[in-house]
Amino acid sequence: MTDTPMGTPRWVLGVDSGGSGLRVALAPVPGARSTADDSRTDLAESRADTAVSRQPVRTGPDGIDAGHLMEQLVPMAKALLDEAGGGAVKAVAVGAAGMATLGDDLRARLPEALAEAFGVRRLALAADAVTAYAGALGQRPGAVVAAGTGMIALGTEGRTWHRADGWGHLLGDCGGGAWIGRAGLDAALRDHDGRRGGSAALRARAEAFFDGPVSELPAKLYPRTDRPAVLASFVPEVAGCAAEDPVAAGILQAAAVHIADTAAAVCPPETDCEVALTGGLFGIGDPLVVPLKEELAVQLPRARAVPAEGNPLEGAVVLATALALDALALPCDGRLLHVPDAKD
Amino acid sequence: MTDTPMGTPRWVLGVDSGGSGLRVALAPVPGARSTADDSRTDLAESRADTAVSRQPVRTGPDGIDAGHLMEQLVPMAKALLDEAGGGAVKAVAVGAAGMATLGDDLRARLPEALAEAFGVRRLALAADAVTAYAGALGQRPGAVVAAGTGMIALGTEGRTWHRADGWGHLLGDCGGGAWIGRAGLDAALRDHDGRRGGSAALRARAEAFFDGPVSELPAKLYPRTDRPAVLASFVPEVAGCAAEDPVAAGILQAAAVHIADTAAAVCPPETDCEVALTGGLFGIGDPLVVPLKEELAVQLPRARAVPAEGNPLEGAVVLATALALDALALPCDGRLLHVPDAKD
Predict the structure, then answer these.
(1) Where is the ATPase BadF/BadG/BcrA/BcrD type domain (chains A, B) (predicted)?
(2) Which of residues 184-213 of B touch A (CB under 8 A)?
(3) Is the same domain home to A118 and A235?
(4) Nearest CA of chain A to the CA of B29: how many Å?
(5) Residue A2 has what pLDDT?
(6) Closest alpha carbon within chain B to A178
(7) Rounded Cα distance, B75 and B55, in Å
(8) Chain A contact set for B231 (CB, 8 A)
């Protein structure tokens, strides 16, 4: 890192690619004597500038399309750099949904493309669960539960990643947004049919929310391509009647048990281990978080539930900063977190 | 019915349209003194000739395409009639998956089209659940559970239809084939992750059945358009290890409870009411049927589980025969069972 003239501003880029688009953050590299943990503090002070594209990166036959990602990333990052007064990009971290299984094109083409565009040779390619982890806990050991429409948990003691669930709405994501929404609509239809387990309150909410009798739900749901998101859109309604409706409360209790199962499967064995909850699902608050903390206390008495320090984009900045400082401490396994041979 | 010369053979057509294609049966009208119940006996003696097309009838913007159905039905029915030596078709019953919600084109165009093709003016248009009912119980009151990839129950005391579930793999079909298969794969992935509720036996079967590690299941399942059928294809594996594996046995026990819930919601209140189980799912036999009969005894002590007498195609013949004999006794509600004004 002696090729940058003294006084030239030094930056890192964090990138978060997901179903809602591409987000980019430019953050200064902390002073040479900073540690990776200090960089966490810098982030908390929001020194990063960010840009957002609402166009999700395309997925083609080779997986996530590196060319389409670069087309969006380069102008966004150059604009951020210009606004910040210019300087050198020392490291980039790209977090992407589907990186482990759909990241071949990114792993093959991004190192050269980023070297050409920014002269940067330090690069980390991470699954979105890894950037969620780094955003929530930095580089400390622990476990992170990331829950939105889906649900995945990732834990590490520092040597390897332990992953649980994240298998999608038909094979898992147990306790996630699509799971809870589906259970709520199941209870609404049970009430319609006169089957056991029905909830008149959830039926009334479903009829108001989806604007029509529940018998029309199949015709509204199945033609959609974003079915998991449609199911998850019903979560606030389930949470909204949990205080009065025992069926809704039972659904959130069952979700809490599934989420705790998943956290327990990845949590390192150390006592006083941190477990962070991150992702939009926890925005519903107490109706889910209270039973979840109770269940974590039962299943993981050694663990301590903590708030997530930051989001996945901030996690990408944590990874890039750690790379820039030669201080990456999270496990690199080539799939969840891939760091091509560093050259600088 | 005096316009057919004495001695001319008189026939009915039963039609069953579903995801696997179109099936047509030609059966003789029983003698004038026969009752609808006698016609049941004729069917049991397999006097119907059948033809099968493997091409499912197309669904367009107006629902199930009446023109595409007629294109296939007319040559098949005329060939059956020719083989049988000719004669007059007195009534037709068409059962179709999705008839209630997707049957507008059929209700609008089939009466005239069938009158033109066969000179027949007696027509019944039925949901596949109704033909399943008529195949299983004839025109007697009771309840029928039809389970394959999906799951629906239909019951009647003779005046109205009571329907429960059949809402598809994301909203219901609780205890059906896709539900059981999905639960089995969930248990396989729980074992992979080290989550509670996992089954090593189901994981081993999933790896053998889907030819690879369970972590590859999402990439195999989600790109498919026939996801419910893929899930249901795993049912025999769940059944196959239920004797040794408590997780698999628990899945089938839970399915039995859901199926009994659904039957209980539609079963008429009469004592000694018949409940028939029909559809491919029950082909797995005791691992599901034994706990289901136990659960029915608990939830519906007044009911008597009976074998289905025939399949949905035979049910269509029951309906057509009843029409031909002016003896239709099942409820006509315009959606589940629609009989345009009879003219002869």
Answers:
(1) 13-320
(2) 185-186, 189-190, 193-197
(3) no
(4) 37
(5) 46
(6) B170
(7) 14
(8) 170
Residue B162: the pLDDT is: 96
Q: Are residues B271 and B253 in the same domain?
A: yes
If pLDDT is split at 50, 70 and 90, which confidence band does B47 have?
Answer: low
Exposure class string for B200-235: b at 16+ Cβ within 10 A, else e:
ebbbbbbbebbeeebeebbeebeeeeebbbbbbbbb
Partners of A218 on chain B (C-beta within 8 Å) are 101, 167-168, 171
Do both A90 and A25 map to the same domain? yes
Partners of A197 on chain B (C-beta within 8 Å) are 261
pLDDT-derived band at A228, boundaries 50, 70, 90: very high
Cβ distance of A171 and B164 shorter than 8 Å: no
Residue among B192, B254, B245 at smallest CA distance from B217 = B192
Residue A253 included in any domain: yes
Contact list, B264 vs chain A (CB under 8 Å): 195-196
**CB-based contact, A182 to chain B, within 8 Å:** yes
Which chain B residues have a beta carbon less than 8 Å from that of A196? 261, 264-265
Q: Are B1 and B344 in contact (CB under 8 A)?
A: yes
Residues 6+ apart with CB under 8 A from B27: B11, B12, B14, B42, B43, B47, B48, B49, B317, B320, B321
SS3 label, residue B286: helix
Nearest CA in chain A to B154: A193
> Using one digit for the tens of pLDDT, what is the confidence trace for B57-101?
988 888 899 999 999 999 999 999 999 999 999 999 999 988 888
Searching chain B, which residue's CA lies closest to the CA of residue A161? Answer: B193
Residues A133 and A74 placed together within one structural domain of the fold? yes
Dist CA B310 CA A106 (whole Å): 56
Specify the DSSP class assigned to residue B13.
E
Say which CATH number the domain at B215 has.
Answer: 3.30.420.40
**Closest by Cβ to B265, choosing from A101, A165, A194:** A194
Which residue in chain B is spatially nearest to A196 when comparing CA positions? B261
Q: Do residue B232 and residue B328 come from a single domain?
A: no
- Residue A40 to chain B, least CA–CA distance (Å): 30
Q: Is residue A159 a part of any domain in this protein? A: no
What is this model's ipTM? Answer: 0.88
d(CA A23, CA A43): 16
Q: Does one domain contain both A266 and A320?
A: no
Residue among A167, A174, A218 whose CB faces B171 most closely = A218
> Same domain for A14 and A128?
yes
Answer whether B168 touches A (CB < 8 Å): yes
pLDDT digits (tens, 9 = 90+) for B226-235: 899 999 999 9
> Has residue A170 been placed in a domain?
no
Q: Give me the domain span that covers residue A58.
A: 10-138+311-338
- In terms of Cβ atoms closer than 10 Å to its own Cβ (0-12, 13-18, 19+), residue A82 is exposed
Contact between A234 and A184 under an 8 Å Cβ cutoff? The reply is yes
Question: How many domains in chain B?
Answer: 2
Distance from CA of B195 to the nearest CA of A (A): 5
- A101 shares a domain with A40: yes
In a domain, A37, yes or no: yes
Annotate A52-70 with b (16+ C-beta within 10 A) or e (fewer).
ebeebbeeeeebbbbebbb
Question: Among A254-258, B99-103, B126-130, where is mean pLDDT lowest?
Answer: B99-103
Percent of chain B past pLDDT 70, that is, above it, reads: 93
